[in-house]
Design brief:
CATH class of the largest domain: Mainly Beta
Order of helices and strands: HEHEHHEEEHEHHEEEEHEEEEHHH
Number of strands: 14
Strand content: 15-25%
CATH architecture of the largest domain: Sandwich
CATH topology of the largest domain: Jelly Rolls
CATH superfamily of the largest domain: Jelly Rolls
Number of domains: 2
Largest sheet: 8 strands, antiparallel
C-alpha cells in the first residue's frame, strides 16, 4: 500500500482514550459524550481476537468454520491503486465486485498474504447474523440493551475514503491494525465531497487522497486537518464514532478484521435523512432563489425550528403528520410520498 506522508498524521491530536470498567460505564459514556473516544482492550477477550493473535490463518479458520453456505460479496482492486477503494479517472469505481463462498475467498488471501504486489481484497459491511452461525453470540457487543446492526469488514491493506454515517458507531479492531482519521460533522465543506448518487459504498466521500493531499486543488483541506483526530488501533481496541463524524479508515496490516455496531437513538420508523436530502435536491435546489428562500422558511417552521406554538391552533389529534409520528402514521406518510414520487 502507498505510504502516507507521516507528518500529516503525526501532527494530528489523538482521539481521547477512556477507561471503561464494565458495560454500565460504557453505556454512561455513550449517553453523555458526543465526541469520539477510544477504549483500549475493550473486546480483547473475544474468541475472534484471540484467534487473530495466534495467526491470520487461525482467524480465517475461525470464521470459515462458522460461515453459512451463502455468497459473500467482495471488492477486488489491482495492486497499483495501493489499497485505495475509490474512483478511477472517469469517476467509475476503481474496483470490481464479485461474490463467492468464504472458504474460496480466504484461499485467495492465503495465496497472496505477504506479497508486496497482492491485489486489494475487501469484504465490506458483511452482516454477521445472516452470514455466520455463532459469531455474534461468541463475540458479543458490549452495548447493554441496545439492538445494533452487526457488521464485519475484512481485507488486506486498504484505504477507505473519508465519509460519515447517520447511526452512532462502535468500531472494534479484531484482527490486524486500523487507523481512523476523524473530523467533526461541520468539516464537510473542507473535505471536498464527491457525488452523492455515485459513491463507493452509498455515502458521499472526500475526494482528497489522504496519503498525497493536493493542497492546490483542495486548499481548505488544511483547515480540516487542523480539526482532525487520529486513532491507531490494535486488536481488542474499540472506537466510538458519533453520528455524522467523518472518518477515513485504513487497514494497516496484511490482514485486517473490523467488527462494528451501528445503532440509532431514534424511533425505528424514522427514515434516513439522506433520503430527504436527495429529494430536496430533486424538488428544491433548482427553483428560483426567491422560491428557495420561501421554502427554507417553511422547512425551518415545520422541521428545523418546529415548536408547539407553530401548530397548537389545530385541535390536538387532528394535526396529521404535525402530531408526533408513530409507526402507523410514519407508514402512511411513506406510502403518500411513494404515490407522489410515482405520479
Amino acid at each position: 500500500m502507498a505510504e502516507a506522508d507521516p507528518s500529516i498524521f503525526a501532527a494530528m491530536k489523538a482521539v481521547p482514550e477512556r477507561e471503561v470498567r464494565d458495560e454500565a460505564a460504557l453505556d454512561a459514556l455513550l449517553k453523555d459524550v458526543r465526541e469520539p473516544f477510544l477504549v483500549r482492550g475493550l473486546v480483547k477477550d473475544w474468541p475472534l481476537v484471540q484467534a487473530g493473535l495466534v495467526s491470520n490463518s487461525a482467524a480465517r479458520a475461525y470464521l470459515v468454520e462458522r460461515a453459512r453456505p451463502v455468497q459473500f460479496a467482495i471488492s477486488l482492486g489491482p495492486p497499483a491503486q495501493g489499497g485505495r477503494m475509490f474512483y478511477d479517472d472517469d469517476m467509475a469505481m476503481n474496483f470490481r465486485s464479485g461474490a463467492g463462498k468464504l472458504a474460496d475467498i480466504f484461499a485467495g488471501f492465503d495465496k497472496h498474504e505477504g506479497q508486496p504486489d497482492a491485489p486489494t481484497a475487501y469484504l465490506g459491511s458483511i452482516d454477521i447474523k445472516t452470514h455466520f452461525d455463532g459469531v455474534a453470540e461468541e463475540n458479543p457487543p458490549p452495548l447493554g440493551d441496545r439492538r445494533p446492526r452487526h457488521s464485519i469488514w475484512i481485507g488486506n491493506a486498504t484505504r477507505i475514503a473519508a465519509h460519515s454515517d447517520f447511526p452512532d458507531n462502535l468500531a472494534c479492531c479484531a484482527v490486524g491494525k486500523r487507523r481512523f482519521t476523524l473530523f467533526p460533522p461541520d468539516q464537510f465543506e473542507n473535505l471536498y465531497l464527491g457525488p452523492i448518487d455515485n459513491t463507493p459504498a452509498g455515502r458521499p466521500v472526500s475526494m482528497v487522497d489522504f496519503h498525497a493531499p493536493d493542497f492546490e486543488r483542495f486548499p481548505r483541506f488544511a483547515d480540516a486537518l487542523s480539526q482532525a483526530q487520529r486513532a491507531d488501533m490494535e486488536p481488542g481496541d474499540a472506537l466510538f464514532i458519533p453520528s455524522m463524524w467523518w472518518h477515513h479508515v485504513e487497514g494497516l496490516a496484511d490482514f485486517n478484521i473490523l467488527v462494528n455496531y451501528w445503532w440509532r437513538d431514534v424511533p425505528s420508523h424514522a427514515n434516513d435523512p439522506q433520503v430527504a436530502l436527495n429529494h430536496a435536491i430533486l424538488a428544491l435546489r433548482d427553483l428560483p432563489q426567491r422560491d428557495r428562500e420561501i421554502w427554507r422558511d417553511l422547512f425551518d417552521h415545520y422541521v428545523f425550528d418546529s415548536k408547539p406554538e407553530n401548530h397548537d391552533h389545530i385541535p390536538a389529534g387532528k394535526r396529521g403528520v404535525l402530531d408526533p409520528l408513530d409507526a402507523t402514521t410514519a407508514s402512511r406518510l411513506r406510502s403518500f410520498l411513494l404515490r407522489m414520487l410515482n405520479s
